[in-house]
Write a structure and sequence with these properties.
2 strands, about 270 residues
């Protein structure tokens, strides 16, 4: 696996070029261009705040010493939505990336694995562009929420999510070539996965804590601990659960190894299928 990583690093310039091209293509022809990277998170914050903040919440609660109400609830939502959008978009785009770039795959000696890597990396950049909006909301709109030194752990959370997302995306991109219905199945499963991740509600909410089955399901969900890491870093201003992060890191690393192994075994069949 280490040898494979070294081989991929040889293509870092190619990955960078493809990422830049992908970012430019996403907003090509639009009036505002890259400004949409900032406008989209703001619009997303407004929509989700209205839907979940006004209509679906049962009432204010206090979690980890912070009130989750009003603008605080909107910021809580936003903290979880940003990493989820990165994951959700990467997985769905990865399931189609080999078809989208079929002309490259058919070229001799093209390193096909750079395509899902490009997808995950470009969506990570959009995630990073949304973080300043989150920080501004915390500074200007929150009550009792402050940026603490624990924000220095942000690179750890980003690395953890990158490994997990890339591993899952490699699996999706490889399998969807042979099972084209998988993309539609995954689109619906991701909706269920979204509600099974503590984004619109805190993991410590009374409803979750009263039901053992709910706690088990949520704790078995890797995205639970990834999203929680961001929530603790930004919203609660505390150290993320130090026992959960290493376990999730090991699981994500294993998933990445399995994902790359599967991708590598199926790579010779990609040209025929795309």
């Amino acid at each position: 696996m280490i040898q494979k990583v070294k081989e991929i690093l040889k293509y870092r310039q190619l990955i960078g070029t493809l990422v830049v091209r992908e970012l430019k293509a996403r907003y090509r022809g639009t009036v505002l261009g890259f400004l949409w990277s900032f406008i989209n998170p703001l619009m997303m914050l407004l929509v989700y705040s209205v839907v979940f903040g006004l209509f679906l919440r049962s009432g204010p609660q206090r979690v980890e010493g912070v009130d989750i109400a009003g603008f605080n609830y909107s910021i809580f939502l936003f903290t979880g939505l940003l990493p989820w959008i990165w994951f959700n978009t990467s997985v769905l785009e990865a399931s189609q990336v080999l078809f989208t770039h079929g002309n490259l795959i058919k070229k001799i000696k093209f390193p096909v694995e750079v395509l899902p890597i490009m997808t995950v990396t470009s969506n990570m950049i959009h995630f990073l562009l949304g973080l300043p909006i989150l920080v501004l909301c915390i500074i200007l709109l929150s009550s009792g929420i402050t940026i603490t030194p624990w924000v220095l752990l942000l690179p750890v959370a980003i690395l953890l999510q990158y490994i997990f997302t890339l591993g899952f995306s490699l699996i999706m991109s490889a399998l969807t070539v042979h099972f084209k219905d998988l993309k539609d199945i995954m689109t619906n499963l991701l909706i269920l996965w979204f509600f099974g991740t503590p984004i619109i509600y805190p993991l410590a909410t009374d409803v979750v804590q009263k039901h053992a089955w709910a706690r088990i399901i949520l704790n078995l969900n890797p995205m639970t601990h990834i999203v929680e890491a961001y929530q603790y870093i930004f919203f609660f201003g505390q150290l993320p659960h130090w026992k959960k992060i290493p376990v999730t890191f090991v699981f994500s690393t294993v998933l990445l190894i399995l994902g790359y192994t599967l991708f590598d075994k199926l790579r010779d069949t990609f040209v025929e299928e795309v």
